[in-house]
Amino acid sequence: MTFRRSLAVQIKVSARHGQLTDDAQKEIRLKAEKLLHYFDRISMIEVTVDLGDKIYKRVEFLVDCEHKHDFVARDQHEELMAAVDLAVERIKHQIHKYKEKIQDRR
């Protein structure tokens, strides 16, 4: 069931001020797909990588969920995949807090 759900989720990966290699795009998509293990009501994930700075790579995740609950995380690092990992961790933390909030209300 989870496998079919992941196919319905749209994942967009884009770059500003440069281009991402196919391998980098593939790895970012895989990391984004893993967010479905934490929250299955995700409808779209947008990842924007800003390569404009000479030192830091900036990554922004926009995660749209059902019922108007959206999560946003931004981070930067000298290494691209480290920046992606940091942003994913921020999203996971937001999802965890949101799920706790929902469960406390019930």
CATH class group: Alpha Beta
How many DSSP E strands?
4
* CATH T-level fold name: Double Stranded RNA Binding Domain
> What is the residue-averaged pLDDT?
89
| Global shape | elongated
Helix content: 40-55%
Across the major sheet, the strand order is 1-2-3-4
Main β-sheet description = 4 strands, mixed
Q: What structural class is derived from the secondary structure elements?
A: alpha+beta
- In N-to-C order, the SSE pattern is HEHEEEH
Question: Number of domains in the coordinates?
Answer: 1
Taken as a percent bin, the fraction of beta residues is 25-35%
Gyration radius, in Å: 14 Å
Cα separation of the termini: 25 Å
Point out poorly predicted stretches: 1-6
CATH superfamily: Ribosome hibernation promotion factor-like
CATH architecture: 2-Layer Sandwich
Put simply, the count of helices is: 3
Give a description of the structure.
The structure is a single chain. With 106 residues, this protein is an alpha+beta fold. It has a single domain (2-105), classed as Double Stranded RNA Binding Domain (2-Layer Sandwich), CATH 3.30.160. It is built from three helices and four strands, in the order αβαβββα. The protein has helices at residues 2-8, 22-33, 80-105, and strands at residues 10-16, 42-50, 57-65, 70-77. Strands 1-2-3-4 form a four-stranded mixed β-sheet. Helix 2 links the parallel strand 1 and strand 2. The protein is elongated, with a radius of gyration of 14 Å. The relative contact order is 0.17.
